[in-house]
Amino acid sequence: MTELLFLNDAYLSEFDAVVSEVNDDGGLVLDRTAFYVGGGGQPCDVGTLTDAASGTAYKVTKVARAGGAIVHTIDGDAVPASGTALHGAIDWDRRYLLMRTHTALHILCGVVWRDYGALVTGGDMRPGTARMDFELENMSAEFAGEVEALVNAEVEHGRDIGVGFMGREEADAHPDLIRTKINLLPAAIKEVRTIDIVGLDLQADGGTHVHNTREVGRINVVGHESKGRINKRLRIALADAA
After folding, report:
1. Is 205 exposed, middle or buried (0-12, 13-18, 19+ CB in 10 A)?
2. For the segment 148-163, what is each residue's pLDDT rounded down to a tens digit?
3. Which residues share a beta bridge with 166?
4. Do 83 and 192 have their domain in common?
5. Domain of residue 128, residue span
6. Are 177 and 231 in the same domain?
7. Based on the structure, what is the number of domains in the chain?
8. Which regions in the chain score pLDDT beneath 70?
9. How far, rounded to the nearest angstrom, does the alpha carbon of residue 134 sit from its chain's CA centroid?
C-alpha cells in the first residue's frame, strides 16, 4: 500500500520513493508519494519522477486510484522498472494554488453554513477558480456581494488551519463534519481525516490546504446562478490568480 505523504504534510513538494509495481499500462505504483491523487473536486498533482541512479526524468501527467492502488501515469512509453529508486517533485506552483483554492472553498462553505445554514450540493475547482452549489432557495447579486465580504473577513482574520484524524464512530457522532447534502464518505473508511479552520469550520476532507486563511488572499465572487428551485451556485476566483 502506498504511503500518502500529502495527508500529513501538504507542503512537501519533493520526496524519495521506490517503484513497487508497474501495471499493464505502464503506470507506476510507488511505496510512498506526495502526489495528491485527486478527489473532492480537487485535481490530482502533476510533476516529475527522476531515476536516482541514471538521472532519467519521467513526466507524471496523472495520478489516480485504480484497483485499490495509487497509479502514477507517465508520459511516453519508457518507464522505470519495479524496484527503481526515484526522486519525486510535484509542480509546486500549481499545487500551492490548488491548496489556496481548496481552502477558499472551505471558507465559503463555512460561512454559508454558519450564517445561512445551507448544505453543499456540489462543487469543483481548478487552480485559482472554483464553484460551489448550495441548498438555497434564493440567489442575487446582493447575496453574492454579502458572501464575498464575509469570506474575505475570514481571510483577514488569519485563522489557523489544522489537520486531524478521528475514528469512524466518533466522526459519525458529529454529522456536521459532512457538509454535502448526501454523505459521500465510504463506509469502508474507518479513520476520518478532518480539516479545521479554527473558529469557523470543521469538515471531513482528504485534500490539501494552507496553514492559515491569510495565505488564500482575496476571494472574489465572480458569478452566481440558479441551478434549480433549491440549488444555487456561487463561482469564486482568487484575486491574484488571473
Report:
1. buried
2. 999 999 999 999 999 9
3. 192
4. no
5. 95-238
6. yes
7. 2
8. 174-188, 242
9. 19
C-alpha cell at 154: 475570514
**Which CATH number does the domain housing residue 186 bear?**
3.30.980.10
**141-148 — which CB contacts under 8 Å span 24+ positions?**
141/224, 143/224, 144/221, 144/223, 144/224, 144/234, 145/221, 147/108, 147/111, 147/112, 147/221, 147/234, 148/219, 148/220, 148/221
Domain end (from 42, 64, 90): 90
Q: What is the predicted pLDDT for the residue at 17?
A: 98
Q: What is the pLDDT of residue 180?
A: 61
Q: For the stretch 134-158, what's the b/e string if a residue is b when 16 or more beta carbons lie within 10 angstroms of its beta carbon?
A: bbbeebeeebbeebbebbbebbeee
pTM of the entire predicted model: 0.92
- pLDDT for the residue 188: 67
pLDDT tens-digit series, residues 90-99: 999 999 999 9
| Same domain flag for 86 and 180 | no
Q: What is the pLDDT of residue 177?
A: 64
CA 190/CA 170 separation, integer angstroms: 10
